[in-house]
Amino acid sequence: MSTAVVQQETKWWSGGKSPFNASYGKVMMWYFLMSDAFTFGAFLISYGTIRFSQNHWVDPNHVFNSFPFAGHTNLPLAFVSLMTFILIASSVTMVLAVHEGHKMNKAGVEKFMLWTILGGLCFLGCQAWEWTHLLTAQHEVLVNGKIELWNTTVAHNPFGPEVMFNGKEVATPGPIAFGSYFFEITGFHGFHVFSGIIINIVMYVKAKMSHFEQRGHYEMIEKAGLYWHFVDLVWVFVFLCFYLI
Amino acid sequence: MSSSVSSPEISFHPEHVESTKPIWRTFWILSALTVIELTIGLVIYNIHKGENPNATLVLAFKGMVCILTLAKAYYIVAVFMHLGSEVRNLIMTIIVPLCLFVWFITAFLWDGNSWKNLRNRYNGVKAVQTEQTAPAVKDKGAKD
Fold first, then answer.
1. Rg of chain A over CA atoms, in angstroms?
2. Domain layout of chain A by residue ranges
């Protein structure tokens, strides 16, 4: 419509204005996110490389099959689905906060930023539970002819290939790279979630203190939103690489 | 109306949409894609539990899951992050470098697979040292 005509008529590179019709801060946030995408991409692709180079890898449906308060019930993919939905929902509330910002609606921005912060905190709580569960679980492993009880750490992996021992199937030690990769990648992602929550809290406080009202626009909320959506996007790929394929 | 006092480098503001319908519509699309992915994940789980897991079928399902994830990524970036409504050149400066990922993923997974094959073939095979002595050269009456 009218925007398309303006795009064609304007001389974008003649100086004095942004050739992308976006503020410096927004463009730089996009480029930072692109660099972060390559960092996460490097980690995930390195995980894929090591995984493809192994004859046996862990089956995520056997490692991640627990749910808080459900004891030993076998629920593959259940808890991680909940985490994914929490993060998607917090992304939606973030978009709604930006939307309210466009309408200069201070109360709306505050409300949706609070929901986003809450969603982020819930996700971190879930991730903490997942880590704790892996680090404190006890799995039977056949080591040197004896059954030991192992947790999953960067040095221990009780999810190796199964063998018959005394009439029943028991696991042998699995590839230790799994622990390192899982804790490091989900930890790095969790760190981004944590810093995103801090940024969102700062945004909430600034909105409440009418900084954006006085400034006349809520663009900073938009930039914080870009960071938060990036965090969600990375989770989508982490979820894919560790839990689905 | 809004954002009239934003940064001076901005030439025009995109028309502001009042309703939140596109946002919620995208939320339902993302949720549906996630549910489909999870269903396929459980199908893969059941295939592995069965008698003779068909490796090609599992690979096909994993491929489907990857494509669904790319679709989710598209919706998050284009709608939630608003990249879809930005100036086309900005979109290109983001998307074109990310196409490096295609080569990145292909090359490294190919490498990983090659390591596995090499290890399986050569692990435990003793390295054989071959030694060959150069044949003695007979002096053939040196000429000046």
1. 23
2. 21-54+77-130+177-244
Interface test with A, best of B4, B10, B28, B64 (most A CBs within 10 A): B10
The tens digit of pLDDT for each residue in A9-27 reads 668 888 888 888 888 999 9
Tokens of A29: 């946030």
CA distance A147 to B1: 71
Give the residue-averaged pLDDT of A78-84: 92
Written as six digits, the tokens of A153 are 């750490």
Between chains, do A23 and B108 touch, taking CB under 8 Å as contact? no
Q: Quote the CA–CA distance of B87 and A4 in Å, as a whole number.
A: 9
pLDDT band with cut points at 50, 70 and 90 for residue A46: very high
Give the residue ranges of DSSP H helices in A53-176: 60-63, 78-102, 106-136
d(CA A189, CA A128): 12
Q: Which chain A residue's Cα is nearest to B16?
A: A102
Give the tokens for residue A137: 């679980």
Nearest to B6 by CA among A86, A24, A91: A24
Q: Report the relative pairing of strands A168-171 and A162-165 from DSSP bridges.
A: antiparallel
Q: How far apart, in whole angstroms, are the C-alpha atoms of residue A208 and residue B84?
A: 30
Nearest to A34 by CA among B113, B17, B77: B77
Dihedral sign from CA coordinates of A29, A31, A35, A40: positive
The neighbouring-strand residues paired with B62 are none
Domain extents for chain B? 19-85, 88-120
Of A34, A48, A76, the CB nearest to B108: A48
CATH fold of A21-54+77-130+177-244: Four Helix Bundle (Hemerythrin (Met), subunit A) (1.20.120)
